[in-house]
Design brief:
The chain is α/β, with parallel strands linked by helices. It folds into two domains: about 190 residues, Periplasmic binding protein-like II (D-Maltodextrin-Binding Protein, domain 2, 3-Layer(aba) Sandwich), CATH 3.40.190.10; about 220 residues, D-Maltodextrin-Binding Protein, domain 2 (3-Layer(aba) Sandwich). Helix content is about 45%, strand content about 10%. It has 19 helices and eleven strands. The strands form three sheets. A five-stranded mixed β-sheet has the order 8-5-9-4-10, sandwiched between helices. Strands 2-1-3-11 form a four-stranded mixed β-sheet, with helices on both faces. A two-stranded antiparallel ribbon has the order 6-7. Strand 1, helix 3 and strand 2 form a beta-alpha-beta unit.
Length: about 500
């Protein structure tokens, strides 16, 4: 089977997009799949890219180890093919890197994604590095936890890692600028793991409900730059009714909009371009949140999310086990049509809506207003980021392996997940595919949101509390000085780390 896959990899280089076979497919079926994938790539504008890695790299079979959270490890690693196109694309990419670099790719999986195991997982990373153990070339963390660990001085400055090329399309746009401090970067996100795409904030809407309430042209609003807080608020009011007759529109009634998860309002920080930090003339990070526009964004969000008939905040999250039943009940209400729009993440298309009978569409989070130049998007900060321990024994191999895997996944795994699993297998219309493209191409890694867990108070809390209570000015005034002091203290810690 490995010889067959190797031959297919060589063939895929010629046709610009690879696709691997499952154990039961023959070569003809595999080639047909590959050609179909290439046609889709051409139609959607997907471009094949090669890395600039030297062609003669030879690491003599040396192992390069990645630590990854076990509960979600399948998004990064697989040992065998199983006939699923995403799994098999990943299997092919790992094999390709091993053959390209003549190395042995290894993944160590350890419980650490869910709250109960998270601290033990992070403590394991610290203890192994401080003990001087060269166990891992790269360690996976939730991107929101990466800054809390990097201040321990246990990670290598990735700007100094050979072979990492941030100009390549497999890295998030402008990431080397948006989350670096004083020309230091201690974590990276790329297509080495497409978790950032799986966690991207979006909105799903029930097409049957929209039709029943006379809501149309939602895609046109987006493409014409008119998908704004005002318009989504008006639509939410239109699609609401008091089904139980108690005089209050609540969870048992017809809703226009649902905040499905307590983490999802954070996505409006990016979509409304209401970011909390910017760089000064010397390139230093400054807390610049609090403009009149920022206040207006929060006011509109308060109206939309908490003071609009037909809009409901679920108050639950999928990250807490004992809230799972309530979370699933809201999902069911969306599927049945009692909720027209709900906040979500990309991967919910396959995990929550896979068996949905009614057609649904996907929309981006709205802009603040039409004057805002472009749509911007963020991913939930539970998504993956990789850091390199200072104990990494072969930095060149680690850098080459990471770059090669990012490149391979960009060309093969990403189209398999994005074009087939999302845009073809689960999306119900061509317009949804356009929306996925729009979101994917404009995901940002924002400094304030990414570093939130390292500051006290966190910058997102001022945004979220203002949106919830409508008391933006007083909340900002009461917390700003403490936040600025916390940021200054944190950055000084980073600057004291030997580089």
């Amino acid at each position: 089977m490995k010889k067959l896959i190797t031959a297919l990899l060589l063939f895929s280089t010629l046709i610009t997009l690879s696709s691997c076979s499952s154990g039961g497919e023959d070569v003809a079926e595999t080639v047909t799949t590959a050609v179909t994938a290439e046609t889709t790539a051409v139609e959607t504008g997907t471009t094949y890219y090669e890395s600039d890695l030297p062609e003669d790299l030879d690491f003599k079979g040396e192992s390069v180890s990645f630590l990854y959270r076990d509960e979600i490890g399948d998004e990064f690693w697989c040992e065998v093919q199983d006939g699923e196109i995403v799994n098999d694309a990943l299997y092919t990419d790992i094999l390709k890197v091993e053959e390209q670099l003549k190395c042995d790719m290894v993944c160590v999986r350890r419980l650490g994604h869910y709250t109960v195991n998270r601290n033990e997982y992070m403590n394991h990373i610290t203890s192994t590095i401080l003990a001087g153990d060269d166990l891992y070339a790269w360690v996976d963390l939730m991107v929101g936890n990466s800054p809390t660990k990097m201040k321990e001085g246990i990670f290598y400055n990735i700007f100094k890692v050979k072979y990492i090329d941030f100009e390549k399309p497999w890295y998030l746009k402008d990431m080397s600028e948006t989350v670096s401090i004083d020309n230091r970067l201690y974590f990276i996100t790329s297509d080495a793991s497409i978790d950032y795409l799986r966690c991207a904030f979006c909105i799903f809407f029930n097409k049957t409900t929209a039709e029943n309430y006379g809501v149309d042209n939602l895609y046109e609003l987006v493409l014409e730059g008119q998908w704004t807080l005002d318009n989504i608020t008006d639509i939410t009011k239109k699609v609401s009714s008091d089904l139980d007759g108690d005089g209050v529109i609540g969870k048992d009634d017809q809703l226009g909009f649902l905040v499905h998860d307590t983490n999802h309002p954070k996505g409006f920080m990016g979509s409304c371009d209401s970011l909390t930090f910017s760089r000064d003339a010397d390139g230093n990070w400054q807390y610049t949140y609090g403009s009149e526009r920022d206040a207006n964004v929060v006011e509109k969000l308060h109206t939309f999310l908490y003071a609009t008939e037909g809009s409901l905040h679920s108050g639950v999250t999928d990250a807490v086990a004992d809230q799972a039943e309530k979370y699933a009940a809201f999902t069911s209400s969306f599927k049945s049509g009692k909720i027209m729009m709900m906040t979500a993440e990309f991967n919910h298309a396959s995990t929550l809506l896979r068996d949905m009978e009614s057609e649904y569409g996907v929309l981006p989070y709205p802009k603040y207003d039409e004057a805002q130049d472009e749509y911007k998007f963020m991913s939930r900060n539970t998504h993956n980021a990789f850091s390199m321990p200072t104990t990494c024994g072969n930095i060149d191999l680690a850098g080459a392996a990471y770059e090669a895997l990012s490149c391979a996944n960009y060309n093969n795994l990403l189209p398999a997940y994005y074009e087939v699993a999302l845009k073809t297998k689960y999306a119900s219309d061509d317009e949804s595919a356009q929306m996925y493209d729009l979101i994917h191409n404009n995901i940002i890694l924002d400094f304030g949101y990414t570093f939130n867990n390292s500051f006290s108070p966190g910058p997102e809390s001022i945004f979220l509390n203002g949106a919830k209570t409508g008391s933006f000015a007083s909340d900002l005034a009461s917390k700003k000085d403490a936040l600025v002091a916390s940021v200054e203290k944190y950055i000084n810690i980073i600057l004291d780390i030997p580089d």
